Amino acid sequence: TYVVTENCIRCKYMDCVEVCPVDCFYMGETMLVIAPDECIDCGVCEPECPAEAIKPDTEPGLEGWLALNAKYAALWPNVSEKSDPPPDAADWDGAPGKLQAAFG
Ligand code: SF4
Ligand code: F3S
């Protein structure tokens, strides 16, 4: 599966949802997540994210992100249509400590 990671937080560009063939993105207030049990591993979303926040879970060190994606995909609503990113998205792109700020 692919997972959405920290740099999505407060950037939320949403280009990813437009290309996913199985609509497996779910949207929270500050970020999106992928439902691991629905993702078919096609990989098309990864290069579409301007924040480079989407990664294959075969990369090392993503266990925590995989768990977060699974947890919130079960709680947040499905999203398949792009909406506008936050007006200050560019300011947050690459900012450190976004996970702490968003989830405490
Ligand atoms: Fe959707 Fe493919 Fe990305 Fe999985 S890898 S979330 S199926 S676009
Ligand atoms: Fe987030 Fe990138 Fe999608 S910033 S909303 S994973 S395009």
From TrEMBL:
Domain 4Fe-4S ferredoxin-type stretches: 1-29, 30-59
Keywords: 3Fe-4S, 4Fe-4S, Electron transport, Iron, Iron-sulfur, Metal-binding, Repeat, Transport
Top-level taxon of the source organism: Bacteria
SUPFAM superfamilies with a match to the protein in the record: 4Fe-4S ferredoxins
Chain positions covered by the region annotation Disordered: 79-104
Required cofactor names: [4Fe-4S] cluster; [3Fe-4S] cluster
Coiled coil residues, start to end: none
GO molecular function: 3 iron, 4 sulfur cluster binding; 4 iron, 4 sulfur cluster binding; electron transfer activity; metal ion binding
Annotated function: Ferredoxins are iron-sulfur proteins that transfer electrons in a wide variety of metabolic reactions.
Identification of the protein by name: Ferredoxin
Organism: Hansschlegelia zhihuaiae
